[in-house]
């Protein structure tokens, strides 16, 4: 079972991007139980290959010692907000839900693949025929 969780987490991490994300705020009390998932998600999203997908994304950490329940606030570029109350969620569940929302709001989603034609490559004849003598 642990292997399947690791494999699924690795799959999500490889595909994760932050293109539509403006800010992610992690709020938690490190002395409470059940904060490992939020700490794992924070360290996962702090990986260079994920941060490079949108260098404008701000990761904020609000560490408290007052028994505050762990939560992740995600602000998107379009003004929409998403809140994860992570007390009873696993790292995989959080990453899965986050990936789902990020993928849905991806600005590159509506762009089609660039088509390479002979004319765009410059290798086509461009309508020139053989010259007659």
Q: How does this structure look, described?
A:
This protein has one domain (2-109): Glutaredoxin (3-Layer(aba) Sandwich), CATH 3.40.30.10. The N and C termini lie far apart (78 Å). The mean pLDDT is 86. The chain has a 4-stranded mixed beta sheet, with no helix packed on it. It is an alpha+beta fold and 133 residues long. It is 35% helix and 19% strand. The protein has helices spanning 2-15, 36-45, 48-51, 91-104, 118-121, and strands spanning 21-28, 58-63, 71-76, 81-85.
Compact description:
By secondary structure, the protein is of the alpha+beta class. The chain has helices spanning 2-15, 36-45, 48-51, 91-104, 118-121; strands at residues 21-28, 58-63, 71-76, 81-85.
């Amino acid at each position: 079972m642990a292997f399947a969780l690791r494999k699924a987490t690795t799959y999500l991490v490889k595909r994760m991007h932050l293109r539509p994300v403006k800010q992610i705020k992690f709020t938690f009390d490190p002395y409470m139980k059940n904060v490992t998932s939020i700490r794992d998600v924070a360290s996962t999203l702090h990986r260079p290959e994920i941060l490079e997908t949108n260098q404008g994304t701000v990761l904020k950490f609000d560490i408290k010692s007052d028994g505050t329940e762990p939560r992740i606030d995600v602000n998107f570029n379009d003004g929409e907000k998403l809140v994860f109350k992570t007390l009873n969620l696993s790292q995989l569940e959080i990453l899965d839900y986050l990936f789902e929302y990020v993928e849905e709001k991806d600005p590159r989603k509506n762009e089609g693949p660039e088509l390479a034609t002979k004319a765009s490559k410059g290798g086509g004849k461009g309508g020139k025929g053989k010259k007659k003598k």
